[in-house]
Amino acid sequence: MSRSVLVIGGNRGIGLAVANQLAAGGDRVAVTSRGGDGPDQFLCVPCDVTDPAQIDAAFDTVEAEHGPVEVLVVNAGITRDRLLLRMSEEDFTATLETNLIGAFRAAKRAARGMLRLRRGRLVFISSAVALAGEAGQSNYAASKAGLIGFARSLARELGSRGITVNVVAPGLTETDMTSALPAERHEAIIAQVPLGRIAQPNEIAAAVRFVASPEAAYITGAVIPVDGGVAMGH
Fold first, then answer.
1. Beta-carbon neighbour count of residue 135 at 10 Å?
2. Domains of the chain and CATH, by start
3. Given 42, 59, 92, 140, the catalytic residue
4. Other C-beta atoms within 10 Å of 121: how many?
5. Cβ-count burial 55-68 (b if 16+ within 10 Å, e if not)
6. Close Cβ partners of 24 (under 8 Å, ≥ 6 residues apart)
7. What is residue 79's predicted lDDT score, i.e. its pLDDT?
8. Is the CB of residue 23 less than 8 Å from the CB of residue 2?
């Protein structure tokens, strides 16, 4: 059955790959971006997750066009990498505001409709950095690790209503964000990956597609690493 799907941060990279794979399975997919721009094949709505009013407006639009959101994928994220002694408080709080508090706002809004439907899928895109840590990314790691505790708490809270909550934790993935890394940093990260390469967005999207599928109805509170083995043991 075609479901109403919303991918927060779905206009490019991992989010776009997720949107494409879910749409290929027959779902009605909407994506958000800060400017409301995105591929023509999807309903594209503007949404800055740091603004609660914009989240409400985005859900209102999607619900009017596609019906209540049955699958929410939260992919919006920023980085402000700095070593601790060079990191400003604004660098830290802005990263948490987007990556973690934004996820809280989107999940809370989606849960309303899912509770009424007595079904739903919440999927949060975290990071291998949340599991293994990374120098210069304490703010990003904290925000992405926070998603794991948040998701597992929601899994316990919402499970009796048929709502699953899971986390996909990618490693270094070929996106606009990672293309900005200096070449030497890129090579240093790959050197730590047992599979010896970075991920492609479709490989992350495949894991998201699975946990959002009917076949994953008995999986909740899981953290699924798609990282080439870089964070194994965590």
1. 9
2. 4-224 (3.40.50.720)
3. 140
4. 26
5. beebbebbbeebeb
6. none
7. 92
8. no
pLDDT digits (tens, 9 = 90+) for 7-61: 999 999 999 999 999 999 999 999 999 988 888 999 999 999 999 999 999 999 9
Q: Which amino acid is at 160?
A: S
Ranges of H-type helices in 8-127:
13-24, 52-66, 89-96, 102-117
Distance CA 139, CA 162 (A): 33
Residue 227 corresponds to which tokens in the numbers above? 């990282």
Beta bridge partners of 44: 31
If DSSP codes are grouped into helix, strand and coil, which group holds residue 73? Answer: strand
3-state secondary structure 110-163: HHHHHHHHCCEEEEEECCHHHHHCCCCCHHHHHHHHHHHHHHHHHHHHHHHHCE
SS3 state at 209: helix
| Nearest-angstrom CA–CA distance, 219 and 151 | 12
pLDDT confidence bin for 233, thresholds 50/70/90:
low
Residue 126 and residue 168 in contact, taking contact as beta carbons nearer than 8 Å: yes
Tokens 């699953």: give the residue: 164
As a whole number of angstroms, the distance between CA 148 and CA 125 comes to 9
Contact between 105 and 89 under an 8 Å Cβ cutoff? The reply is no
d(CA 127, CA 154): 19
Spatial separation of the C-alpha atoms in residues 234 and 30, rounded to whole Å: 33
Average pLDDT for 121-139: 96
Residue 140 known to be catalytic? yes
pTM summary value? 0.95
14: nearest Cα among 31, 35, 28, 37: 31
